[in-house]
Amino acid sequence: MTEFLSTASAPGKAILLGEHAVVYGKPAIAIPVSQLRVEATIEAFRCPDNEIWIDSPTIRLYKNIKDLPYEHPLREVVEMTLAECKNRSFPGLMIRINSSLPIGGGMGSGAAVSCAVIRALSKCIDGQPLATETINRLTFEVEKIYHGNPSGVDNTVITYEQPIYFRRNTPLVKIKIGKTIHLVIADTGINSATSLMVSGVRKRFDQNKEIYQQKFDAIAKLVDEAREAIESGNIQLLAETMNENHRLLQEIEVSSFALDRLVKTARSAGALAAKLIGAGGGGNMIALCTGETAKSVSQALNAAGAVRVFSFTLTGEQTEE
Fold first, then answer.
1. Which of 50, 128, 186, 295 is spaced 20 to 30 A from 282 at the CA atom?
2. Per-residue pLDDT tens digits for 36-64
3. Of all helices (H) and strands (E), which one includes residue 219?
C-alpha cells in the first residue's frame, strides 16, 4: 500500500503587462493562475535510505535523482532543497509530479514545478515547508537553468500566489484588485523556449539600443498605468494598456502569426483587450473580457483552433494575507 508522506502544489502564472521589458529593469504586472497547478506528492519508496526517485509523466521522466545530469533542473531543485533542510537522514522517497500547466506556454511551468517540489520535499524531510522567502530564492536559482537570465517574476508570483507589481531588485509590491477582472487564456499549442526568445530580444537590443530602450520605457509607462487601473477598477484603461502592450511586443518581434490570429479573434468576439503572455513565439495569449463576453470569446477562440481555452477571474480576495 502506498504511503503518502506530504504533498504541495503551486499555480501557473501570467504576465498581464511588461514581459521582456522586465528583464531590462522595467516593471511588470504578474498574476497567479490558480486554476492551473502543479502538484508534487512525496511517497515512501522501496529504495535505499537517502535516495530519491522522480516520476513525472508530463515529461516522461522516471529516474533516480542521482542518475540525472548535474545541471538537470529537477536534480538541482532536490539537492538545493535537501541542503536547506535541517534533517540530513530520511528513508527512500518517490516524488510524483503532475501538472495541468502547458510546457513552454509562458505560464511558468518550470517555476511551478520547482516551487511545488521544494514545498512538498522540505515538509516531508523537516515536518514543515521551508520559509516562503527561501522557497522563492531556490526557485529563482532553478529558473536560471531553465531560462539563462530570468527576471525573477515567475518564481515570485508563483511562490506568493498573489497579483504583484514586480521590478527586479526592488521590494515586492502586492496589487489590490479594485474590481473583478474577467480573463480568458488560449493556448496556440506551439511550444516556445523562453531562453531563445529572451536571447533573441537581447541580440536585437544590442544592435538597436536606443530604439529598444524607447520601447521598453513605453512598456514601463503602460505597466504603471495598468497598475493604477487595476487598483481603481478602471477596466477600460486596463484594456487600453494591454492592447498597446501587445502592439509594442509585436514591434520587438516576439509575437507570431498564431498569437496574432488568436488576439484578433478575441477582440473581434468582444474582448476589451487581448495580448500574448510570456516569452512569445508561441504559447498562450490572454483576453480581457466582461462577465457577459467571456463565454462568447472563449467559444470564438476554440473555433479558431486554440488547443485549450479557459476563463477565470481576479478578485479582491486574492490580495488577502
1. 295
2. 999 999 999 999 999 999 999 988 999 99
3. helix 209-232
